[in-house]
Amino acid sequence: MDKNKLLGNRVEAALKTLGADKVAKFYERVGRKPCGCAGRREALNRWHLKAMETIENLKQEKEHD
Q1: Would you say the C-alpha torsion 55, 61, 64, 65 has a positive or negative sign?
Q2: Distance CA 48, CA 51 (A)
Q3: Residue 7 in contact with residue 45, Cβ under 8 Å?
Q4: What Rg do the C-alpha atoms of the chain give, in angstroms?
Q5: Cβ neighbour number for residue 12 with a 10 Å cutoff
Q6: Phi-psi region of 36 (alpha: psi -120 to 50; beta: other; left: phi over 0)
Q7: Would you tell me the crossing angle of helices 7-18 and 37-64 to the nearest 10 degrees?
Q8: CB 44 within 8 A of CB 8
Q9: Looking at the 3D structure of the chain, how many domains does it have?
Q10: How far apart are alpha carbons 11 and 60 in whole angstroms?
Q11: How many CB atoms lie within 10 A of CB 8?
């Protein structure tokens, strides 16, 4: 699967379009701690891959019934 199509990357792109990346950078400067964006993106990507795997497994099970 194309990495750009994963949920976390899509959410990141959409939020960047809205300017949320600038808000996150400001938060990091003012709060002096990471915003956690990368971790959330990766968690969403892992969840998306797991969901796709589960759907594929269910399709295969249905074909064998």
Answers
A1: negative
A2: 5
A3: yes
A4: 16
A5: 20
A6: left
A7: 140
A8: yes
A9: 1
A10: 29
A11: 21
What number of residues does the chain have? 65
Residue 27: phi, psi to the nearest 5? -60, -45
Q: Which domain covers residue 24, as residue numbers?
A: 3-64
CA distance 35 to 37: 6
Burial profile 30-62: b = 16 or more Cβ within 10 angstroms, e = fewer:
eeeeebebeeebeebbeebeeeeeeeeeeeeee
What is the pLDDT tens value at each position of the chain, 65 positions in all? 787 899 999 999 999 999 999 999 999 999 999 999 999 999 999 999 999 999 999 999 888 87
